[in-house]
Amino acid sequence: MSTGFFDGIDAITYEGPDSTNPMAFHHYNPDEVVAGKRLEDHLRFAVAYWHSFAWEGGDPFGGRTFDRPWYPQDNMDLAKLKADVAFEMFEILGNPFYCWHDADIRPEGDNFAESLKNFEAIIDYFAQKMESSKVKLLWGTANMFSNRRWMSGASTNPDPDVFAYSAATVKACMDATQKLGGANYVLWGGREGYETLLNTDMKQELDHMGRFLNMVVDYKHKIGFEGQILVEPKPQEPSKHQYDYDAATCYGFLQKYGLENEVKLNLEQGHAILAGHSFEHELATAAALGVLGSIDMNRNDYQSGWDTDQFPNNVPEVALAYYHVLKAGGFTQGGTNFDAKLRRQSLDAEDLIASHIGGMDICARGLKAAAAMLEDGGLEDALKDRYAGWEKPEAKAMLDSSLDAIFDRVVSENINPQPQSGRQEVLENYVNRFV
User: Fold this and answer.
1) Region of poorest pLDDT, from 138-142, 273-277, 348-352
2) Among 168-172, 236-240, 288-292, 396-400, where is mean pLDDT lowest?
3) Domain map (residue ranges) of the chain
4) Of 79, 91, 158, which is closest to residue 117 (Cα–Cα)?
5) Does residue 324 have an active-site annotation?
6) 377 Rama class: left (phi>0) / alpha (psi -120 to 50) / beta
7) Strand partners, 239
8) Is 307 a known ligand-binding residue?
9) Can the peptide bond before residue 17 be classed as cis, meaning omega within 30 degrees of 0?
10) Residues in CB range of 366: below 8 A, 6 or more apart
11) How far is it, in rounded angstroms, from Cα 334 to Cα 232?
């Protein structure tokens, strides 16, 4: 039975690049085979429950602008209506996956037991709906940043009771993710950081965060969860400094606490920008370190200094991102989650569908361009040429040598290197041929 929220909106189909229909796919054909794989299987699109259904259109300077039939989000009947609308949207878009935080899908109770009861009831409701739907769960996670109890962090909180509450919350969310067949479980450290060092014992907080993540991994193995455990880097906002600053910082943390072979990263475009990086930089870093797991696809407004979570619309940026995903072998258990939300002036149900259509089309165009570049091999050939000197036996031997031996060689052979062009503009022009 339809909720009526999407009345007048039919299932979205592929009509091709010449179509002018705003409610159709122009570049995303899920069955199109690219680099030996269907686009749907390459991209593994997921709808974010929090931005699409739980977010009310507020910003730092004003309250909600949306008016949804499942507001206020404070009782189980409306939580089920919200789920009904969500699954209707999944059918309309044909996205293969969705993602949630616990607080997105259930009303908050007066205590942990009441919240858990609501959460388990809505998970049962999701399980029933998934039996008649093609959509699967890409990942679940816990919201440990919105409620005032998390104001000083979750696993890093100076109050041990908050640490305990956090552990219980994650355990419940991991159980739910496993029950729904989730492919991953994400830890998003929204407030795992500090506002000032004047009241912060950084070493203790980092040690507690490392111990907490080890508990998560131990529990994964105890229950036989076959999904990936993912950590999501984010540099700041809301905390002045967050411990999961970027891909490299997270990898150093994982190494310190013996988790580099157990945990991978869920990387977000908007967070990369906040860290002063490009998305391709974060993806290339994670791939080089062997911890590329999944991505949150969105963008920031480059004229704003905060995380605006807009839908992607820049094909060159997206193409370079997927270039590194494909170069690393593509997604296995991860995928492309639209951690993106409507603008607060985009009020209609049609806006919610159109935003995802655009995002899916942009990603399809980007991935196809990335695949074409990899097949052509121009960038890889340029890399091979630039580093060709390291294929010589004397260069390889140097890495197993010593400073004094290398010194003697430079003197005896009169080595006097001359700069070689990096050909940046040539390579940028090359990329522009594809995007």
Assistant:
1) 273-277
2) 236-240
3) 33-376, 381-432
4) 79
5) no
6) left
7) none
8) yes
9) no
10) 315, 317, 318, 319, 321, 322, 435
11) 13
Q: Is the pLDDT of residue 236 over 90?
A: no
| Token pair 């009526």: residue | 4
Please identify which of the residues 104, 244, 246, 361 carries the catalytic annotation.
104
- Rounded-to-integer distance, Cα 368 and Cα 362, Å: 10
Burial, 215: exposed, middle or buried (Cβ in 10 Å; 0-12, 13-18, 19+)? middle
What the block records as the tokens of 355 is 């935003």
- Residues 33-376: name the CATH superfamily: Divalent-metal-dependent TIM barrel enzymes (3.20.20.150)
pLDDT recorded at residue 227: 97
Distance CA 263, CA 259 (A): 6
In this structure, the number of other CB atoms found within 10 A of the CB of residue 61 comes to 5
pLDDT of residue 190: 81
The answer to whether 218 is a known catalytic residue is: no
Say which residues have a Cβ less than 8 Å from residue 323's Cβ, sequence separation at least 6.
280, 370, 373, 374, 379
> 209 phi and psi, to 5 degrees?
-65, -40
Q: Which amino acid is at 321?
A: A
Residue 102, marked binder: no
Question: Which of the following is catalytic: 42, 101, 281, 324?
Answer: 101
Q: Give 15-66 as a DSSP string.
A: --TT---TTSBSS--TT-EETTEEHHHHH-EEEEHIIIII--S-BTTB----
